[in-house]
C-alpha cells in the first residue's frame, strides 16, 4: 500500500499561505538593505566597486557567502494530493517548480541552439559529467571558464555525476569502493571516476546544481545484497563528495536516494541522507525498466520521508503521464532525453498523445503539429511580426514534417522545438493548477485528453497511484 501520510508537506495547503524557505547553514544570506548591517554592507560594496581598478574582477572576488547558492520557497500545496508549487533560486536565476529539464548531455541539446532553448522558456537544463570529462575534458573546461561559457548558456545548469553510466555503459564499467573504472566508448582508454574526481569535474563545469556520485544498480536486478551494498556505498560516497566539494558557496550539491525497489532500504537511505543536510535531494535508480506501480511506491515512500523545505528531484522521468502522477506523489524536478530523442524518430508530443508523423496518413495533413500550441513551429505566419519577439510563427504543418521526417534533419529539428515547448508548457500548467488548488481537476482533464475520454484506456498503475493520494479518475 502507498504511504498515505503527508509528512514532509507544509501544514497549510492554500495558495499564498505557505512560505517555507531553505538556505544552507554554511552560506546564510546577508542582512537585508533595510537592516543597519545591510546598509553598511551596501555602502562598503558601492565604495569598493567605484574605487577598484577592475570592478568586474572585484565582483567575482567578493565573498560568495554573501548570497546562498540555492534558496527554496514553497508557494502552495495541493489540498488533496502531495503536489507542490515552489520557487527555486539559483545563481543563474529563479525557477518555478515543478519543472522539467531538457537534457543537453554534451553541452548541447541535440537539434537546438542555446538561444532556441531559451526562447522555449527553459531556464535549467542538464549536462553530463562523464561525457564532458571525455570531451572536451577538464583542462578545456578550466581554460574556457566552465560549461556556461562553452555552450553560450546564461541560465542554470545541473550536472549528473556520471553514476548513471554504470548502468548504461555496464560492459565498459567496473565498480569498487574506490570508484568506477570506465573504458571510453570513443577510444577505449581507461578512466577512474571517484567521488572526489566527479566533484572536481563538476566544479570545473561550473554547474549550479551538482550531483553526488552514487552506486547505481538496475532496478530489475534480483540481487538484493548488491542493491544494499550500492545503497550503503552511495551514503559513504556522499560523505566523500561533501568533503571534496571546493565550491559550496556557488554550487549546490544534491544527494541521491538509492535502494532499488526495496522500501526498507529506501527508508534507511532517506534517513541517512537527510542527516547530511544537502541543499536538495534526488531519488535515483528508477526508470530502469521496473513496473510503474513499483516506481510509484518508491517515489511515494521517499517523498513522505523527505523534508518539506528542500527540492525533490526524481531522475530520468519524462513521459507526460509519469510526470503528472509523480507531481501528485510529491516530486518537484525531472529530466529525461525522451522528448528530444523521440523527435528524431518523427514523433510529436501532443495533449492527445504522441503522433508519428512518418505515418502516411499525415502526407496531406495541413493542420499544425498540435492545434492551439503556441510553439514557434505551430504558430501561424503573421505578416510584420518578428519570430524572435514571439509574434509570427513558422506555420509548420504535419504534411511538411511528414515530408521531411525520413529525408531531412530539419524535420527532427522542428519536432525537437515543438516537443521541448510542449514539455515546458505542461509543467507551467501543472504549477498553475497547484497554485489555484485545482490539481485533481487538472489530472482528470489531462487523462481525458490523453485517452480520448476512454477510461478503459487509462493505465491501471496511474489510476491506483492517484487513488492513493485522493484522486479517483474513475469517478463519474
Please give the share of residues in helix: 25-40%
Percent in strands: 15-25%
Whole-Å distance between the termini? 24 Å
> How many strands, which pairing sense, and closed or not: the largest β-sheet?
8 strands, parallel
The global form is globular
Q: In total, how many beta strands?
A: 17
* Strand line-up of the largest beta sheet: 5-15-14-13-12-11-7-6
Which stretches are poorly predicted, pLDDT < 50 over at least 5 residues? 1-18, 25-49, 54-66
Secondary-structure class: alpha/beta
GO molecular function, one term: metal ion binding
Keywords: Metal-binding
Protein name: tRNA-guanosine(34) queuine transglycosylase
EC number: 2.4.2.64
Detail the topology: elements first, then pairings:
Elements: E1 20-22, H1 36-51, H2 55-61, E2 71-77, E3 84-90, E4 93-97, E5 99-101, H3 114-119, E6 124-128, H4 129-134, H5 138-144, H6 147-151, E7 156-160, H7 165-168, E8 173-175, E9 180-183, E10 190-193, H8 195-205, E11 209-211, H9 224-244, E12 252-257, H10 263-276, E13 280-283, H11 292-303, E14 312-314, H12 320-328, E15 333-335, H13 338-343, E16 347-350, E17 353-356, H14 398-405, H15 409-435, H16 439-450, H17 460-467
Parallel strand pairs: 5-15, 6-7, 7-11, 11-12, 12-13, 13-14, 14-15
Antiparallel strand pairs: 1-2, 2-3, 3-4, 8-9, 9-10, 16-17
Helix pairs in contact: 1-2, 8-9, 9-10, 10-11, 11-17, 14-15, 15-16
Amino acid at each position: 500500500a502507498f504511504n498515505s501520510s503527508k509528512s514532509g508537506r507544509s501544514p497549510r495547503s492554500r495558495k499564498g499561505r505557505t512560505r517555507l524557505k531553505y538556505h544552507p547553514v554554511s552560506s546564510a544570506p546577508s542582512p537585508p538593505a533595510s537592516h543597519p548591517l545591510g546598509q553598511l554592507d551596501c555602502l562598503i560594496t558601492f565604495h569598493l566597486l567605484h574605487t577598484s581598478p577592475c570592478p568586474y574582477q572585484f565582483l567575482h572576488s567578493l565573498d560568495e557567502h554573501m548570497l546562498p547558492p540555492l534558496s527554496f520557497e514553497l508557494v502552495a500545496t495541493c489540498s488533496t494530493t502531495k503536489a507542490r508549487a515552489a520557487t527555486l533560486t539559483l545563481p543563474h536565476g529563479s525557477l518555478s517548480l515543478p519543472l522539467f529539464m531538457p537534457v543537453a548531455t554534451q553541452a548541447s541539446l541535440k537539434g537546438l541552439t542555446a538561444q532556441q532553448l531559451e526562447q522555449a522558456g527553459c531556464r535549467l537544463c542538464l549536462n553530463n559529467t562523464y561525457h564532458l570529462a571525455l570531451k572536451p575534458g577538464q583542462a578545456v573546461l578550466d581554460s574556457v571558464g566552465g560549461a556556461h561559457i562553452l555552450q553560450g548558456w546564461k541560465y542554470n545548469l545541473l550536472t549528473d555525476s556520471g553514476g548513471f553510466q554504470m548502468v548504461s555503459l555496464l560492459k565498459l564499467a567496473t565498480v569498487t569502493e574506490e570508484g568506477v573504472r570506465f573504458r571510453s566508448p570513443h577510444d577505449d582508454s581507461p578512466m577512474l571516476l571517484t567521488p572526489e574526481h566527479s566533484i572536481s569535474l563538476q566544479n570545473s563545469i561550473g554547474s549550479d546544481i551538482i550531483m553526488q556520485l552514487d552506486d547505481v544498480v538496475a532496478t530489475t536486478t534480483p540481487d538484493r545484497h548488491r542493491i544494499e551494498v550500492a545503497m550503503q556505498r552511495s551514503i559513504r560516497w556522499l560523505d566523500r563528495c561533501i568533503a571534496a566539494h571546493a565550491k559550496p558557496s556557488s554550487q549546490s550539491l544534491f544527494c541521491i536516494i538509492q535502494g532499488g525497489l526495496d522500501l526498507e532500504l529506501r527508508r534507511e537511505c532517506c534517513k541517512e541522507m537527510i542527516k547530511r543536510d544537502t541543499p536538495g535531494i534526488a531519488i535515483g535508480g528508477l526508470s530502469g525498466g521496473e513496473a510503474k506501480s513499483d516506481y510509484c511506491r518508491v517515489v511515494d515512500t521517499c517523498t513522505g520521508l523527505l523534508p518539506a523545505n528542500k527540492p525533490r528531484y526524481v531522475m530520468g522521468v519524462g513521459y507526460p503521464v509519469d510526470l503528472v502522477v509523480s507531481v501528485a506523489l510529491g516530486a518537484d524536478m525531472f529530466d529525461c532525453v525522451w522528448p528530444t530523442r523521440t523527435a528524431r524518430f518523427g514523433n510529436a508530443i501532443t495533449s492527445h498523445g504522441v503522433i508519428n508523423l512518418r505515418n502516411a496518413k499525415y502526407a496531406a495533413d495541413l493542420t499544425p503539429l498540435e492545434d492551439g500550441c503556441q510553439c514557434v513551429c505551430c504558430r501561424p505566419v503573421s505578416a510584420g511580426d518578428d519570430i524572435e519577439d514571439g509574434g509570427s510563427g513558422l506555420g509548420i504543418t504535419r504534411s511538411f514534417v511528414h515530408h521531411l521526417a525520413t529525408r531531412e534533419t530539419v524535420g527532427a529539428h522542428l519536432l525537437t522545438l515543438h516537443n521541448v515547448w510542449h514539455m515546458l508548457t505542461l509543467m507551467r500548467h501543472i504549477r498553475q493548477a497547484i497554485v489555484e488548488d485545482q490539481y485533481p481537476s487538472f489530472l482528470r482533464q489531462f487523462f481525458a485528453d490523453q485517452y480520448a475520454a476512454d477510461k478503459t484506456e487509462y493505465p491501471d498503475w496511474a489510476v491506483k497511484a492517484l487513488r492513493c493520494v485522493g484522486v479517483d479518475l474513475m469517478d463519474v
